């Protein structure tokens, strides 16, 4: 629910009745859940207070605390509710859908529907689940595993020649494609999106995977001399943001990780923690955008340019896994003026990728191509996180899967 929608809902149920008596609505907990989902989705768990949610609903903080004892209780309930909704979406009756292909299509459609219905909270599930307490995080992880197990089962029936690890690779890729809907704000009618992502995921399910690598492929990182402090600070900060979350990292933590004797030394290179985050985001955005021109100029056609860009994106993502996640997970903490610039760079990059995709697949609309580009990006990031340095998810396999999503 958007802010405007929640305000409209509030006006319809919180106002006076015919006898002029103001009554507490019966669906107050549902209203609170919707308002908190919208607020958390927009500003993140750490960027929202109970007072913010109460103000959005037009009630007092005390009234809100009568329903939920803390912000964490709201956050926990909302994430686990949506985790359960995704789990329920893949429950399919064999009597209703007798073939494995039909059951898989039904599951994919259910996941698309659940993601669209809970778009803001799926963002939190993807990027802020780490802020759950260990026992609750375990429940959320079990819900995700249940979704993957259900997809695995249909893949086993559809593609019995696939090994169990390969099925999990493909299931993870399909789930990344669908939940990518939560990573951006582009709009498309639900029926069209169902058709688009169903086709993309079935292309993944039916593809012949390249052989797995025989050894792990560790990230390739340029060695940074200790004397090159601004680069060292940037790398160490990104690693800490990825590990703990931006709000839980201090300037002192970054200074210590970079081998500086005091936090004050950081300020010789950056204005503060948010400046370091903004520098990391600019680097990630510029890396994607800067690759487009050379790829187009150095290849004979759009298909060749996409080949170059896909190879580059996979390599960059796998080499900088922490930065790839931080870019999505911590965007709300970037200063507002930087966010506008970064959004524009990302929008232009996605448009250029989408243009190349449409030149190879002219039947796609511009919106469809953009959704597929977002989906391909998210899938690679998810594979990099789910299978770190695992030969199962080699770069060659990730390249192949990205091509299948973009090119069919």
TrEMBL record:
<dbReference type="InterPro" id="IPR009057">
    <property type="entry name" value="Homeodomain-like_sf"/>
</dbReference>
<feature type="domain" description="HTH tetR-type">
    <location>
        <begin position="227"/>
        <end position="288"/>
    </location>
</feature>
<dbReference type="InterPro" id="IPR050109">
    <property type="entry name" value="HTH-type_TetR-like_transc_reg"/>
</dbReference>
<feature type="DNA-binding region" description="H-T-H motif">
    <location>
        <begin position="49"/>
        <end position="68"/>
    </location>
</feature>
<keyword id="KW-0238">DNA-binding</keyword>
<dbReference type="Pfam" id="PF00440">
    <property type="entry name" value="TetR_N"/>
</dbReference>
<protein>
    <submittedName>
        <fullName>TetR/AcrR family transcriptional regulator</fullName>
    </submittedName>
</protein>
<feature type="domain" description="HTH tetR-type">
    <location>
        <begin position="26"/>
        <end position="86"/>
    </location>
</feature>
<feature type="region of interest" description="Disordered">
    <location>
        <begin position="1"/>
        <end position="27"/>
    </location>
</feature>
<dbReference type="InterPro" id="IPR001647">
    <property type="entry name" value="HTH_TetR"/>
</dbReference>
